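We give the entry.
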Amino acid sequence: MEYQHRDLANGRWQNLSFVEQMANIGSEVERAIKWKNKDNAQYSSMAFERALELLDLTIGNERRGSHLRELLRLREVLVDYFAFENIYG
C-alpha cells in the first residue's frame, strides 16, 4: 500500500497520543468537508483518503480495543458520507 503519510505510517503515528491522532484525523475530515462544500471533488477526495489512512493507522494501533467499536463506526459513517448515499445523514 502506498501511504500519503509515509513518516507516520513508519511508526511515528504510534508515538502520538490517541487525542493527537483524533485531532489529525479531524483536521483531514474538516478539509474534506470544506472542499466538498466548495464543489472541489478532487481536493475533497484527497483529504478524505488522507483521513481514512490516518483512521486506519489508528484502528490498526488500537491494542486494548477500548475505542475500536467507535473508530470502526466513524470509518463507516465517513465512507457513507463521502463515497456513498449518506444514509446516516
